[in-house]
Design goal:
single chain; alpha/beta; 6-stranded mixed sheet; 5-stranded parallel sheet; about 15% strand; globular; binds pyridoxal-5'-phosphate; Thr_synthase-like; threonine synthase activity; TrpB-like_PALP_sf
Length: about 475
């Protein structure tokens, strides 16, 4: 399997070569040259596999340059019960007879980012060991990416992490998780501004090839290819678990829909990959909060990213994103995987601030299966309350955005799965507001809230950031 750029300007490369980047040298995003496909019989042959073994099979379709036994060893370490609280790694929990949760938050930082990042930690270490050298990961987080990256790399000697977070925009628990780490290779940088400001600095650094080479900079943001591919695994897992009890004939015609609480379009992009590969997903339901740029796109066909001043601070903060980096990979498919057309579209976007695909509006739904919706703080509170009081299931505000929008897109005979993107313990305030109950913090994490915190504060200034990295990079 070779990888190319959405903008057509990159020599095809292998999985190991593009793993750390995601961003192609021509400014596009790396995508598979052709999407691998999974035949029905092959899907069936995976039914008895546990999660790590299934992950090795699915990732093996993307990482064809890594020998299968090595991949199997990596997924076994990444998805072990040492790190995941649930025996199944990814449990399926019914809320009622139409809607179930796919439990993606059993990992060390209680959010779905662990699903991808745990694999990436193993894969990056594997590639570095073969190639020699070190890596300095520079990332930006709106909350959950940062801790997932730091927990995935804290024990990797050849990797340092520099994580930018927007000052005062994360929950107490999220802050405690990140800032309590004491490894000298972990650098937390609290920056003025919002997530998109931090992301803009990263883009500037990524464009400075000299700086990047000199300080061995890599990225693990949500455009990272290793993350997207690792996320396709649980869509395959979901299909298998939903059909375990069905007869052979029932399986032939089975379809399910998935609702994905979305921000940077990474998680749902993996769903689009899985659907393209042949997993029988009927609808990919995109759920957004008040920052509803993507909901607007899938309803109207017009993509109009917003500036950071126009990005609201909400009670589902990991979705407070108004410029969805990964959308380019989907648009690449939408324009017939034509790099030239994609470049033209992005030139229009850069010049006018808007992309008009309203003449593709029907294809978004009928060909690609995308529908969408959004919610408000009051919706989240009502959904958390109702899901708890009526069904005894406690959910976090992002998953609540998902459950609310999922209920607007139910179809007879089509099971609906909502991706549980975080545990309620990470967002206690809104959970208490909705239910009057304190969300339970797992035993092994209780010390966190009172642990000493270590963080560097920085103004919204790229030079300061460069200086800090130059001084602390692992070379
Ligand atoms: C990252 C995150 C999201 C958004 O996922 P994307 O891949 O950026 O669309 C939603 N919910 C939670 C809890 C997250 O951490």
């Amino acid at each position: 399997m070779r990888y190319i750029s959405t903008r057509g300007g990159m020599e095809p490369a292998s999985f190991s070569e593009v793993l750390i980047e995601g961003l192609a040298p021509d400014g596009g995003l790396v995508v598979p040259a052709t999407m691998p496909t999974i035949a029905r019989e092959q899907l069936e042959s995976w039914r008895r596999l546990d999660y790590p073994s299934l992950a090795a099979e699915v990732l093996g379709m993307f990482a064809t340059d890594i020998p299968r036994p090595d991949l199997q060893a990596m997924t076994a370490r990444a998805y072990s019960t040492d790190k995941f609280a649930n025996e199944a790694i990814v449990p399926v929990t019914p809320i009622d007879d139409r809607v179930s949760l796919l439990g993606l938050s059993e990992g060390p930082t209680l959010a779905f980012k662990d699903m991808a990042m745990q694999f990436l930690g193993e894969a990056v270490e594997y590639v570095l060991q073969r190639k020699g050298g070190t890596l300095n990961i520079v990332g930006a987080t709106s909350g959950d990416t940062g801790s997932a990256a730091e927990y995935a790399f804290r024990d990797k000697d050849s990797v340092a992490v520099f994580m930018l977070s927007p000052q005062g925009r994360m929950s107490d628990f999220q802050r405690a998780q990140m800032y309590s780490l004491t490894e000298p290779t972990i650098h937390n940088i609290a920056m003025e501004g919002v997530f998109d400001d931090a992301q803009n600095h990263l883009k500037a650094l990524a464009g400075d090839l000299d700086f990047k080479r000199r300080y061995r900079i890599g990225a693990v943001n949500s455009i990272n290819l290793g993350r997207v591919t690792a996320q396709t695994v649980y869509y395959v897992w979901a299909y298998l678990r939903l059909t375990d009890e069905l007869s052979r004939e029932q399986r032939e015609s089975f379809e399910f829909s998935v609702t994905v609480p979305s921000g940077n379009f990474g998680n749902i992009l993996a769903g689009h990959f899985a659907k393209s590969m042949g997993v029988p997903v009927r609808r990919l339901v995109l759920a957004s909060n008040e920052n509803n740029v993507l909901d607007e796109f899938f309803r109207t066909g017009v993509y109009r990213p917003r500036t950071s001043e126009n990005t609201y601070l909400t009670s589902s903060p990991s979705m407070d994103i108004s410029k969805a980096s990964n959308l380019e990979r989907f648009i690449f498919d939408l324009v017939g995987r034509d790099g030239l057309r994609l470049r033209e579209a992005w030139a229009i976007l850069d010049a006018s601030g808007e992309l008009d695909f309203s003449d593709h509006k029907d294809a978004l739904r009928e060909t690609y299966g995308f529908v969408s919706g959004s919610s408000t703080h009051d919706d989240r509170v009502a959904t958390i309350r109702e899901t708890f009081e009526d069904h005894g299931v406690l959910i976090d505000p992002h998953t609540a955005d998902g459950v609310k929008v999922a209920r607007e897109h139910l179809e007879d005979g089509v099971p609906m799965l909502v991706l549980e993107t975080a545990k309620p313990a990470k967002f206690r305030e809104i959970v208490v507001e909705a239910t009057g109950e304190e969300p339970e913090i797992p035993e092994h994490l209780r010390y966190l809230l009172s642990a000493e915190q270590r963080v560097v504060e920085m103004t919204n200034d790229e030079r300061a950031l460069r200086n800090y990295i130059a001084e602390h990079a692992l070379l």
